[in-house]
Each structure stands twice: as C-alpha cells, then as structure tokens.
C-alpha cells in the first residue's frame, strides 16, 4: 500500500499543518495531516471501521488491482452498489453517517455529491467504502474532487490498510476548497509521490517499504459541531491504475483526459487565480502572486495581499504557508 512521509517542516506552522505519523503493524507508514489530538483519535476510529470491513470482504473475494468509477447515472440515484458500501455508524461528535440519497447521490452529469446537513439539529452526512480491496506493487490512485471550505468541514479520500495496524492516509487533508482539483498518489517499489493537479507535493524514497500491501478506499465528508451546514463535496471520478497507466479490467473514467491536462480547464487550476484578488493582477513590475503547491527558490520575490516578499528558503508551498504566516520562510520587502 502506498505510503509517504512528511518532509522537513518550517519552524513555525499553523496547528492544522502539524503532522502525525501513523505506522501500520505491517511496517508501512502513512503521513496524516491532523489539526489536533481529537482528530488523531477520529482518524484512528475511521481506520479501524474501514479496515475491519475490508478484512471481512477479503474473506469473500480476493483483492483486485484496478478500480474506476466515473459516477454515471440518473440524477438523484445512488452510487453503484457493486463498487461501494455505506457506513451507517454515528461519529463521536454526534454526526450520523447515512445511506440516504439526501447525503450521497449522483447529479446526472457524471458526478457524486456528498452532503453534510443539519435537519432540526440532527446532523447527517455520508461515508462510502469500496467493496473491493486492492493490491499492486506499483500503481496510482487519482481523484478529481471539489471540496467545501469553512471551519469544521473535513473532506476525506482515505487509503486504508487492511492490516492490523489500521493505518490510513487522507489525500484531502490539505485540499484546496472552492474548485475542482486532481489529487493523486503514485507508488513504485522505489518511489512514492503525492501530487495535486500534476504538480509534485511530496516525493520519498520507498526502499524497504512494502508497496504491495492490501488496501481499500474510504470517501467521506465529516462535519464538526462548529461547521456551517449544508456543505457539499463533489467527486468527478476516482480510479486506481497501474503506474504505467494501465487500468487492468477497470473501466477508464470519462474525465481522465481532463485530469491529465488540468491546465486546459479553468476548474483544474490549483489555487486562486490573479483575477480573484486585485493584488494578484500581473504587470511588468508586479512579482508573481503566492500560490499553494508551487516550488519556490531562495531569493525569489512574490506578492501577497498587496505586499512583496522574498523567499528565504527553497520549499514547495502548502495551504496555510502564506508569507504572512511564516516569517521563517518569507521576508517582507
């Protein structure tokens, strides 16, 4: 199962970007971005439930090496029951996971919509688990998803190990809200890479890591008590393929070409465009505007919220690493 570890972090980070390392009993590590100790417990609870479900399914049928769902179907219908199962438990904060189409349904345009809502104080959402588990030494998990913003909203696309360690990695832990982005993790026996819209976010040496562990997928939208509801997460496609692009027996997702060339679609841009901020309008004298998921070099000058900043240390930016938040990485000019 693909694993990756976090790179060296700047000396000052926002609490939401602290990294908790969860290690499975099989010896594979997953880096999970979590905002607090309570979230660590929540992630452990989610992992145990999904891993137990997948272990039970493994007794009925062997793991497969490919998967694809482009969520075709008429508007208001549910997901393919041959591919997904619903969790129907209640989270520790009172949120109830439901299989109702009010919480998870197709939009009729090739997308799945997960909705967290509150009706008369009863908060509900949806959590889906793949019915199959997967196993391949080299591969790619890719999904194109639009996540909601706001405090207390926690979208997740998790790879869950079926070993007794019950470890998991959430590809959406640092997702960019407000627009579609393509999130992916690829793995080979030598390298594990996490990308957003085709840009590398993390890459580690996988030597000594078992990349062929069985794993499954869990897709969910959690909402804490502080969250403003309703909130929607929209999923265009989810697929697992070979590292060489081979899909095995799985049907390729129709939106695959869009995810492979995000620059051709405005919705695939990884972050705010200059038109979204008056200070981001480029000109001959204006440095490029700061963006997440971009590699920056020491000495480079960027603009952010009407001011210019010099990069003090080479790094790849992440949400929450704005120049105003990390004086250890940026000097205001």
Automatic annotation (TrEMBL):
GH16 domain ranges (all copies): 54-246
GO CC list: extracellular region
Cited SUPFAM superfamilies: Carbohydrate binding domain (SSF51055), Concanavalin A-like lectins/glucanases (SSF49899)
Protein's GO biological process: carbohydrate metabolic process
Keyword flag Glycosyltransferase: no
One Pfam family here: CBM_5_12
Superkingdom, taxonomy of origin: Bacteria
CDD domains found in the cross-reference section: ChiA1_BD, GH16_laminarinase_like
Keyword Plastid listed: no
Bias type Low complexity, positions: 250-288
Keyword field: Hydrolase
Disordered: annotated segments: 246-292
An MF annotation (GO) of this entry: hydrolase activity, hydrolyzing O-glycosyl compounds
PANTHER family: GLYCOSIDE HYDROLASE FAMILY 16 PROTEIN, GLYCOSYL HYDROLASE-RELATED
Family: Belongs to the glycosyl hydrolase 16 family.
Protein name in the entry: GH16 domain-containing protein
Protein's organism: Winogradskya consettensis
């Amino acid at each position: 199962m693909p694993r990756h570890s976090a790179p060296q972090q700047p000396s000052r980070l926002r609490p939401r970007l602290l990294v908790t390392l969860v290690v499975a009993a099989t010896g594979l590590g997953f880096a999970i971005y979590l905002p607090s100790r309570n979230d660590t417990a929540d992630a452990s609870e989610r992992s145990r439930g999904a891993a137990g479900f997948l272990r039970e399914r493994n007794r009925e049928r062997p793991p497969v090496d490919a998967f694809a769902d482009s969520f075709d179907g008429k508007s208001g219908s549910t997901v393919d029951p041959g591919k997904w199962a619903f969790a129907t438990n209640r989270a520790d904060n009172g949120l109830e996971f439901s299989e109702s189409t009010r919480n998870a349904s197709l939009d009729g345009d090739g997308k799945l919509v997960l909705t967290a809502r509150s009706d008369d104080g009863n908060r509900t959402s949806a959590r889906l688990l793949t019915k199959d588990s997967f196993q391949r030494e080299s591969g790619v998990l890719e999904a194109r998803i639009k996540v909601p913003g706001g405090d207390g909203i926690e979208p997740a696309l998790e790879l869950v190990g079926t070993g007794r360690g019950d470890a998991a990695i959430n590809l959406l832990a640092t997702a960019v809200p407000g627009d579609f982005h393509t999130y992916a993790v690829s793995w080979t026996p030598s390298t594990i890479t996490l990308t957003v819209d085709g840009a590398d976010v993390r890459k580690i040496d996988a030597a000594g890591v078992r990349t062929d562990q069985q794993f499954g997928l869990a897709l969910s939208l959690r909402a804490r008590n502080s969250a403003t509801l309703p909130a929607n997460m929209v999923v265009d496609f989810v697929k697992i393929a070979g590292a060489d692009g081979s899909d095995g027996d799985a049907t390729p997702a129709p939106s695959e070409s869009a995810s492979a060339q995000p620059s051709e679609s405005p919705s695939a841009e990884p972050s705010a465009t200059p038109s979204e901020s008056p200070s981001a309008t480029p000109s001959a004298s204006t440095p490029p505007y700061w963006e997440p998921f971009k590699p920056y070099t020491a000495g480079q000058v960027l603009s952010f919220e009407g001011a210019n900043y010099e990069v003090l240390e080479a790094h790849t930016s992440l949400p929450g690493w704005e120049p105003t938040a990390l004086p250890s990485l940026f000097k205001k000019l």
